[in-house]
């Protein structure tokens, strides 16, 4: 792996690491968060495509790219809902584990990443390490039946949402274009989902998110997501890091997301919980580093 590929692969560490904390800090309902985030992503994508002279795809390349965006937005709606249940510092490690299982295993078995037997063993051990690390970050010193029940519900919601995240990562691999060309249609798919979701909730008596100012404040968080998404899409291409390694590198963002959630959003932990969380985050980083050698 060359230095350029590694730096691009770590781009999501900053973008996705700060994105959930910024979105939670701005506040509003999940529909406000997803609407503003997707609009911000589309603005970012259009500006990038225009400045780089990137052509708009057509045919199946276009439709698979839009499907990818629809998958992400659908899953992110679920994730925002879980933020309101257990907080971003607990939700992010859980969703990281599910996403690693879904997208990375798809990359290995369907797309041929980690081709050798040794590669698969090392990659598999790295996945196990990341999953254990994610579990450690949600460990609780004081067991509470109500909190445990809420956490179980959150895990179920995130497991369902993984279907969308899997589509987000896997669909672009079925195209003959690069991540940069897929970026704009992906953002279009995201916006379509967020608008449909907002209209659906309005039809059920909730306030129309399109008419709320907080929705447009979330455009700021969308810029952070878009930066991460672009660098991830480039990183996941076969001539860069590949889907499996690229995805695992991107998920090191859970470290920043977890710590900023604790520090800036008041998602408190006891001293012992904090040490266990730090241990889990170190394990995640160490396991991700293993994949760089594959």
From TrEMBL:
Subcellular location: Cell membrane
Pfam families: Sugar_transport
Segments passing through the bilayer: 6-22, 34-50, 62-84, 91-109, 121-139, 151-171, 183-202, 214-234, 246-265, 274-292
Membrane-protein topology: Multi-pass membrane protein
Source organism, top-level taxon: Bacteria
Keywords for this protein: Membrane, Sugar transport, Transmembrane, Transmembrane helix, Transport
GO cellular component terms, semicolon-separated: plasma membrane
Chief localization: membrane
GO MF terms, alphabetically ordered: carbohydrate transmembrane transporter activity
Similarity annotation: Belongs to the GRP transporter (TC 2.A.7.5) family.
The protein's name in its UniProt record: Ribose transport protein
Native source species: Lactiplantibacillus paraplantarum
The organism's taxonomic lineage, starting at the top: Bacteria, Bacillati, Bacillota, Bacilli, Lactobacillales
Encoding gene, per UniProt annotation: rbsU
């Amino acid at each position: 792996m060359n230095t350029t590929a590694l730096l691009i692969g770590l781009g999501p560490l900053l973008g996705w690491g700060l994105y959930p904390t910024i979105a939670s800090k701005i506040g509003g309902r999940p529909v406000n968060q997803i609407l503003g985030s997707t609009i911000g992503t589309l603005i970012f994508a259009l500006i990038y495509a225009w400045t780089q002279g990137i052509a708009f795809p057509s045919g199946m390349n276009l439709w698979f790219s839009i499907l990818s965006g629809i998958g992400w937005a659908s899953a992110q709606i679920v994730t925002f809902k879980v933020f309101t249940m257990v907080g971003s510092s607990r939700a992010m490690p859980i969703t990281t584990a599910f996403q690693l299982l879904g997208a990375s295993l798809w990359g290995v078995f369907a797309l041929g990443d980690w081709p050798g037997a040794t590669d698969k063993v090392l990659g598999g051990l790295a996945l196990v390490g990341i999953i254990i690390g994610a579990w450690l970050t949600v460990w609780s010193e004081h067991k509470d039946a109500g909190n445990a029940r809420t956490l179980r519900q959150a895990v179920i919601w995130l497991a369902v949402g993984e279907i969308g995240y899997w589509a987000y990562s896997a669909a672009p691999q079925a195209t003959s274009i690069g991540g940069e060309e897929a970026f704009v249609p992906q953002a279009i798919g995201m916006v379509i989902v967020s608008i449909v979701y907002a209209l659906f909730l309005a039809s059920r008596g909730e306030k129309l998110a399109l008419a709320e100012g907080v929705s447009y404040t979330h455009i700021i968080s969308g810029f952070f997501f878009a930066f991460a998404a672009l660098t991830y899409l480039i990183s996941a291409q076969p001539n860069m890091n590949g889907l499996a390694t690229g995805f695992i590198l991107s998920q090191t963002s859970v470290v920043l997301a977890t710590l900023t959630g604790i520090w800036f959003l008041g998602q408190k932990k006891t001293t012992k919980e904090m040490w266990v969380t730090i241990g889990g985050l170190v394990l995640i980083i160490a396991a991700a580093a293993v994949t760089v050698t594959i």
